[in-house]
Amino acid sequence: MADYYKILGVARNASKNDIDRAFYKVKSKFSSEDVEDPYFKNFYRRILEAYNVLSNDKLKTQYDQKFDFSEQKISNGKKEEEKILNEPIIKYFKSNQESLGKGEKLILSWEASFADKIILDPVGKVSPTGTKVIWYDDLAEGETEYNLTAVNENSGRKVSRNIQVKKQFSQETEVLKDSVDIPKEERKEELQDSENVSSVDNKQNSNLIRKYAIPVSIGILFITAGVFFFNKAERDVVEIQSEVVDELSTQEEEIEKSLIALDWKQIQREKQLLAQNLKVSSKSEDRRILEFLDGYRALVNQMNQTFYEDENYEKVSSALYTDQSENKTEASKFFEKLENNGFKISQSEGSPFIEEKSSHLRSVLEPNISDATALGYLDLYLESIDSPCCHDAALMISFDDLINRTYHWGELITKAENSSLADIASRRFANHLYLLFLGIDNTPAFDYDSEMYNNELLKKLERHKLDYPSALSSLEVSNYLKLLESEEYIKNDKVVDYVRGLSGASFDLTSKSYFERFRDPDFRYIPNAEKIIRLSDAENRRDFSKIGSFYAPTVNRYWNDTIVDYTNLKSLYETAWSNSDFSWNHIQNIEEYEGNNLELITKFEYVNKDGDTIYQFSSTHFVFNEDGLIEEVYGVDSDNTYKSLRDSDFDYISDEEKIRRLLKAEDDRDFDKVASYYSSNLKRYWHITEPTFREIGNIYRDAWNTTSYSQNIILNIEKSGFRTYDVQVRFAFYSKNQNQPEAKESFTRYIFNDKGLIEEVYGLIDNQG
Length: 769
Prior knowledge:
37% of the residues lie in helices and 25% in strands. The protein has 24 helices and 28 strands. It has a six-stranded mixed sheet with strand order 18-17-22-21-20-19, covered by helices on one side. Strands 24-23-28-27-26-25 form a six-stranded mixed sheet. InterPro entries: Apopto_cytoskel_mod (IPR051938), DnaJ_domain (IPR001623), DnaJ_domain_CS (IPR018253), J_dom_sf (IPR036869), NTF2-like_dom_sf (IPR032710). Keywords: Chaperone.
């Protein structure tokens, strides 16, 4: 039995009022729908069990006696609670079967107390309570012995139990395919098994479970995740425990004399009413399917309440675990009755409960639902019933299947936009990401000892990114792997807090709240210049989630595009990235102007598809809104663009010297240096008026491409007006077209502005240029 005091968070000497307050404080975190979520079910059930025992004086006394809790006085007069037992205890160690046939799996389960180290040989170190799944193909030939050892390091004592399992060859069972539609992969069918608790050894415990247990469809004790997830959890009907019967069935049966007395007549009426509402409702199909499942959840819960309170509940439980039960025949009839009416018996932690049959549920819903998104949701929902992801805090499906389910929940978010399924898909997606990123108690994503991330899972996540680069799941995986890399793939508080933060997060790439997740904690307090530096770093890493966190939901202008949302922005970035294998912003300077206007000057480095490394200076103008988010981005020609390339004495040398150095830069064919002498507001360049730096650059490069060599030989520089110079040059070059050296003279006028930059250049002879 679990530590009920620890579950409620109270001391062992807590008063009844303390227990009441603790229970209602924890219970208030759950809504009625939350307790149906597979990630919360077992946790909520144990909270309820703990309260029911500790709030009842008689049951509390029995509970305390059973675990032999006592209080002992210490020297300062205070009482300290401690466990007396130093002897390690293995409460149970069992398997679901003694021999294994082809296609089957072995489920080992155990629980130990008062032990510091639990070793399952030949598996290795395990947690005190857990489950291990072993497939037929993984068993050695013949018989295999599994030995569980519990060690109390304080006392030095240990205790062991073992199980012999035989590998059979006489029977062949079919290996089924996964029910996931896209992409379909063959795998072994997961069979839902549960722990077999002994009703003989602990009858009081069994009565307690029978009376107070909440129905659970999968046995996942996810306390660590649940403690942080439930305070943000909202209404989620993904794991609804409901069922539908054939809508055409009109026969009403009287309550029969059977092992469990369910009111089948009332059950039939309620099922028929739900089926009829499904047909005639004028609501959207996503609402119809959810309301239908919601109704069946309530129906199954009512049936389970009757089931738990029935005096024969324990007989049914006993009949499930042994063929020698005297109630086996009657129990079989009850099971058959459930099957015929669209229900089935399932088990969790040794406790049987009623739940829906997915095949029957599908047979009623599919004929009445045509919307592809609603049907996609139904497929994922029924898959979780047929093949639960987890059981007894252990993963029951392969890593491949888990990644596949995560992918499909992510795709459903996009498809279900603006429908009632969107929030549900987001929560299911977040839960599956939690399993991928952190794992659960008995199937952790990090190694128990080294705390390094599972290498096999890491490789599969990297493969998923390559297979589905545009998928939402790949985006989240990419963000997480970048974090892991920065933390050297070791589990720490930063990693755990990040994953826990996914609870309640938005995964809608069109929403502002999605990108808020990726903002730095100090985002609101840092200056806009610092934001630009961090944005550039995110662009270097091609991390769009981080990039998007700096932008407003609607960007009024992004270079040549206007009114750009997050989806369009992502597409523009991805298109740019697709043209280069590598890119990097080397920040030269950031200029701040009035208001929220800033100018970023960068030396942009990138590798084109031909493998050439290109460098390009540019200036980008940013406009921030009142919230500190970017609402405009566009390129500008600025006097600051090439400022970093100017000589240190630029402001002190004469205009004539600048002309000499400009012509030398032309000889060196260094356009960036050439451009540093020109004004961004160039009025005229030969025959072009008000040219941009890009246009001037194209003219220079075209000229250089026609010659393999060129040199400006200055013959004369004469000042002809205010900051105006006429330059006579003998231009020598090697013509590629003529395949011979040539030379010609030119007369060019240069006019400087008051900043010492050239604002006009043109030839003095008509046939020049």
